[in-house]
Design goal:
By secondary structure, the chain is of the alpha/beta class. It is 34% helix and 25% strand. The chain has a nine-stranded mixed β-sheet with strand order 6-5-4-7-8-9-10-11-12, covered by helices on one side. Strands 1-3-2 form a three-stranded mixed β-sheet, with no helix packed on it. α5 (182-198) packs parallel to α6 (237-246). The longest helix has 40 residues, at 2-41. The radius of gyration is 33 Å and the shape is elongated. The termini are far apart.
């Protein structure tokens, strides 16, 4: 009986020891968890000390407004991000920026570099470059870039200094929209390039109906030239140069809407 009693006492002691180890391990885990939680959320270790803007092209974007918008966007990405707060360096991730760029039409690129040891963020931004002005029937004009994205308001201009499209298609474009389909816009750029190389000094085009997918040049010093946005216009360069040598005053219009065919009418 005494041996049985001793064994029971030993087993009870072992069970208490095991329980103490388990409770100790759980307590240690929660202490470590609390420490990590404090380190990430409340301590200054992951709090951003400085933000550096890198804008190689200069530009005029308001950095304070951009910073405020970006912080709000990153903090709103998830409950964890919201809990950590916008000043926590851990929530600043470049893979989240595609959605933000859609809200910032003036920016074409934005990257984030994190320097955790320095608690520093480096933001590299690239603003859209002004290529031309797109004016609507309502007289609202916008700057657009070489990708056809409308990104800022523009003034009404006269003369042939800046590329310009007068859009009479009765569409309502707004900042952030593409002016026209990407493929059609590629040919629009080529039309401007063809006109430049022709030496005619034309930089203004007119778009009457979007479904026709064609534009007409506008100039007081040259005849109307009809282009199709569906085809590459470079074949018409030789025709334009020939007519320039012939004398533009003798030409009523030029039609380059059929691929590899140039038609013109003399006065």
């Amino acid at each position: 009986m005494s041996e049985f009693y001793v064994d029971e006492r030993q087993r009870a002691k072992q069970r208490r020891t095991l329980k103490l180890k388990i409770y100790g391990a759980i307590a240690t885990f929660f202490i470590l968890l609390a420490g990590v939680f404090y380190l990430i959320v409340y301590s200054p270790v992951f709090q951003i000390r400085s933000v550096i803007f890198n804008n190689p092209d200069g530009g005029q974007i308001n950095k304070d407004i951009l910073m405020e918008s970006l912080k709000k966007f990153l903090a709103d990405q998830s409950r964890i991000s919201s809990f950590f707060g916008a000043d926590n360096i851990l929530i600043w991730e470049s893979d989240k920026l595609n959605g933000f760029l859609k809200t910032q039409p003036r920016l074409s690129e934005l990257t984030i570099e994190k320097k955790i040891l320095k608690r520093e963020i480096v933001l590299t931004i690239k603003e859209r470059e002004r290529f031309g002005i797109w004016c609507q029937l309502s007289d609202d004009c916008f700057w657009f870039d070489k990708k056809g994205v409308i990104f800022d308001k523009a003034p009404q201009t006269e003369g042939e200094i800046i590329y310009k499209v007068k859009d009479f298609s009765n569409r309502e474009l707004k900042i952030g929209d593409r002016a026209i389909d990407e493929l059609l816009f590629g040919n629009l750029l080529k039309i401007f390039e063809t006109l430049d190389k022709s030496g005619l000094g034309i930089k203004t085009l007119r778009l009457d109906e979007m479904n026709l997918e064609e534009v007409i040049s506008e100039s007081l010093l040259a005849p109307k030239i009809y282009f199709s946005l569906r085809i590459d216009p470079f074949f018409g360069l030789s025709v334009l140069r020939l007519l320039k040598n012939l004398g533009l005053g003798k030409v009523e219009y030029v039609d380059l809407r059929v691929e590899n065919r140039g038609y013109y009418k003399l006065k």
